[in-house]
Amino acid sequence: KDRRVHIPYKDSKLTYLLQSSLGGSNLVHFILAMSSSSLWKAETQATIEFGKRALQLVIRPVRNAIDYKRLEEMEAMIDKMRNHIRTLEEELKNKPQDGQGGPGGDQSSAAFLQLKQLYQEGEERKKRAAARRQKQTQKAALKTKTELNRIIQNLPETLEDLTSHCVLFPQSKIDFRLLGGIEKLVHFVDKSPSTFFRAHAAHTIAAVVDDEGRNTLGQCGGIEALGRLMQVNEERCKEAACVGLDASVRSHNGNKGLLSVEMYQNMVNLIFQNKNQQVQEAAATCLAAI
């Protein structure tokens, strides 16, 4: 009855990120974001299932109390040690040379040297701990980059994994750009025979592009490719093109200058003539960003 139950946090990226909240003594509030678009059907279903499991959590919040009495005792002890060290330093400084200080001076010197040795040992422990943390960080970075390479090699089937990976590890956006990932996404947006992958690639661009990635996107013809995707006679392609353009031109005057008059006209037509509300909102948001 009192045995600890294993909670499989690593079964889900979301629960792994929230393990300190889900397994602690905190009050937790969940906001589940869902979409009525068929493009995000799988994500919406997964979110609903996550919400069902989250409702089964039993959390016992505990108010963290500060023991001020213990805190005062620790502060007094620290002040006492500082004063003792200061006294030893003064005694060592004022000690007569050539052994004229007697046994008392020797004892003070020994005590000071002992404190100095303790300080040096503490500094060495800090250095070893810093080295361990650096090694762990390098190992985690290598693992992250290896996973990113696997995702890139299996595109476009791994577009969803790419989005999740870049959200969890923002540094991967830089690695993805340096590995030529932006150009690959533009190729899928423009040349993929599947309209599903074309739309999904445009959404992925919005999730993984950074400031330098916007420069790359403009140089490799990404703005024009998204403009052509907007002309495809499918609602999801029009919506995805607007979302991708929104992320590509936001706060980037160079990419805004690449937009043609035809693209502006297409976005205006989507707002006033298209019957799909999601497409209208995406086009309006994109125009607002421009």
Rg calc: 30 Å
Query: What's the mean pLDDT score?
Result: 83
Main sheet overview: none
Q: For the record, give the distance between the C-alpha atoms at the N and C termini, rounded to a whole number.
A: 61 Å
- Which band does the percent of strand residues land in? under 5%
Number of strands: 0
Roughly what percent helix?
over 70%
* SSE order, one letter for each helix or strand: HHHHHHHHHHHHHHH
SSE class? mainly alpha
Flag low-confidence runs: none
Number of separate helices:
15
Keywords:
290 residues; 0% strand; mainly alpha
Give structural notes.
With about 290 residues, the protein is mostly helical. The protein has helices at about 15, 20, 40-55, 70-95, 100-155, 160-170, 170-180, 180-190, 195-210, 210-220, 220-230, 235-250, 255, 260-275, 275-290.
Topology:
Elements lengths: L12 H5 L1 H4 L18 H14 L13 H26 L8 H52 L5 H10 L3 H7 L2 H11 L3 H14 L2 H9 L2 H9 L4 H15 L3 H4 L4 H13 L3 H13 L1
In short:
The protein is 71% helix and 0% strand. It is built from 15 helices and no strands.
